[in-house]
Amino acid sequence: MLIESVKNQKVKDWKKLQTKKGREKASSFLIEGPHIIEEAARANALVQEIIISESTDFEIDLFKDRPAVYTVTDKVMKELTATETPQGILAVCKMSESSLAETGKFILLDAIQDPGNLGTIIRTAHSAGYDGVLLGHGTVDLYNSKVLRSTQGSLFHIPIKKVDLRHAVKDLKDAGVSVYATEVSGGTPYHQLQGPEQFAVIMGNEANGVSKELQELAHDKVYIPIYGGAESLNVAVAAGILMYGLMPS
Fold first, then answer.
1. Is 105-245 a domain of CATH 3.40.50.970?
2. Residues 28-75: pLDDT tens digits?
3. Which of 51, 52, 82, 159 could form a disulfide with 90 if both were Cys (CB 3.0 to 4.6 A apart)?
4. Residue 114's closest CA among 85, 73, 150, 62?
């Protein structure tokens, strides 16, 4: 059956997932585009529904458990998508609680507010083989559409958890994980650190950096030297440099 009206109840339900409140109430979120949907299938994420534009073809057989499939008009698809040029396919995914290992390599995010930054950091952490991303209070919603697009599907492949970073830092230290808090200057230049096997890096808010409380809880402060005239680095770029730069040789 083709859904042609934006007033259809299913369409209304899907549109609610465009807001944080609606996502939290339904414990579900929307993803858009064939690549991220294929990544969800590859990771065996719980995909509940597939929404396909009448002018789009997509292979549904890649899902282990075949989700419900709905076909909509291009007009309805445009109503549901957050992009200027819809890719013709959406999926409704169930939120799931990630379980984290006690030790390993982690990136901790203290009130990161830009969706693109958060998504890029998650993608980089996945690429660098990190064991988890911990989202502190004030960090942008993981299921924001721009965050999801920026992860390129990596959120389905790396544990991500919302936590109180104060408690998380204490737990990591108790487990023998070295915790480094970033600072614009001061502390130890990252390239002088002898990266241990188990460590965590705290990245701070774009405007204010890591909170003083978290800096005091960390084992050490670390910074990236600035050799040119720029005042600072973009937080996602800085996170990438540190995630790779602190890896044990």
1. no
2. 999 999 999 999 999 999 999 999 999 887 766 677 778 899 999 999
3. 51
4. 150
